[in-house]
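Data availability (excerpt). The following record was deposited with the supplementary files.
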Amino acid sequence: DPDHIISIEWTKPDTIRWKNIIYQDHFYGSESKTLQESQNYFFTKLIPGIERYHKLNVPFYIGEFHASQNDNNKLAWLLDQFCQRNIHWSPWTYKTINMWGWGYISV
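Predicted structure:
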């Protein structure tokens, strides 16, 4: 669609070279870890993926993430890392109770 930007996740931009696409990834897996474990996960899992997008010169952002429900230091560290690396992001904002993190919102 030449008139719209499409956001897509979990693709291989090195083999599929679509136009008008913003590639995104989700950063989960650090929420139950210590700050040091989260930092290790960030540098060993997330950064290599981001570097792949940068090398291909394609738009990229973190479409969902959360650092911890009870650790503001971890969240501050993660947001600082995103800013230092010019990583665009949006958090996963809607949560439910007793539904494994999934649910719907009726407005």
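Summary of structural features: The mean pLDDT is 76.
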